[in-house]
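User: quick one
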Amino acid sequence: MSLTSAAEKQVAVAAVRRACVLASSVFNKLVKNETLTKDDKSPVTVADYSAQAVINTVLSRTFPDDPIVGEEDAADLRLESASTLRSRIVELANEALTADLRAGEQPTWGLGPDSAQTVEELLSTIDRGNYAGGRSGRMWALDPIDGTKGFLRGEQYAVCLALIINSRVELGVIGCPNLPVSASDPSGPRGCIFVAVRGQGAHQLPLDDPFSSTPTPISIPTFTQETLNLLESVEKAHAKLSFNEKVASNLGITRPPTRMDSQAKYCSLARGDGGVYLRMPTGVGYKEKIWDHAPGSLLVEEAGGVVSDSRGEPLDFGLGRTLGENFGVIAAGKHVHSKVLDAVKRVKEEEETSQ
Ligand SMILES: Nc1ncnc2c1ncn2[C@@H]1O[C@H](COP(=O)(O)O)[C@@H](OP(=O)(O)O)[C@H]1O
Ligand SMILES: [Mg+2]
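Assistant: Done. Structure below.
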């Protein structure tokens, strides 16, 4: 029996959708229409904090006993010097929370016109994301804006939420405001929500109206040597892309890789837009965070794929806020995964012997 009830799925989809609307509106107001200096990261900071405030508000109302492992905390926002940023975040979070109720949403979820929060309420709600994680019990893992660099470039980013029970991801919801509804129509309509419930498959919903449409089941197709390609990070600092090149050549892959920010990579893999997501550590001792992989890994598994580290071990979501020592991530369809794992091992050996 599934450990996740329909209520948790519905709440998570509603919360993620509101956060996606908020993030798109921040992008339109602050990135597109204003002249920003190249390194100004303030829009993503504003979107990150306010999206976490919105999602944590909904989770705190609906599942008050569940702890949350969220990427952000409000310590910096409480500083005297942050007063402008703080007001902007409170304004945006309240705008998102108080928007009219949509089909499938309930006023008891902290949503709708009467749901405005005070500054202190919102700051302590953001801080509900400071749970340390661990092996047993229920917890939510939240990345309010995953792919912050992609967000600033107007490319891919995702709002990512997962429910983990006893170290196992049971529910994953990923909102991708900039992802085309269909990969075969890249200039067509954009905005998707991906939902996976353990044992119940993987589905895609339209971001603008997730509750009124029938979810589209998604699954990983069978790839041939000619159609297979790699999905990888845009940022060289996040994954060892030179290693990916060697793995591709080892496997005889001829198609160029698809570079994309955020867990939109897991979503693309789950619906067959790319055959393998490979993320090998760059060697700087960075530990992967659970919120960067929890919903995406369940989505891929429910779409018929396998997700492991480069030793072939499953990712361990029970170690705290991180996945522990970084052995990278390999995600692919069942039939391709073992071939990629072997190729990764071969390339690792080659690199070790040539040192
Ligand atoms: N040195 C590093 N190695 C691997 N991942 C890193 C990293 N530094 C940051 N990240 C993570 O990479 C995520 C983005 O992944 P991707 O490269 O697939 O788009 C970031 O999420 P945020 O954008 O939420 O901070 C961040 O958590
Ligand atoms: Mg992230």
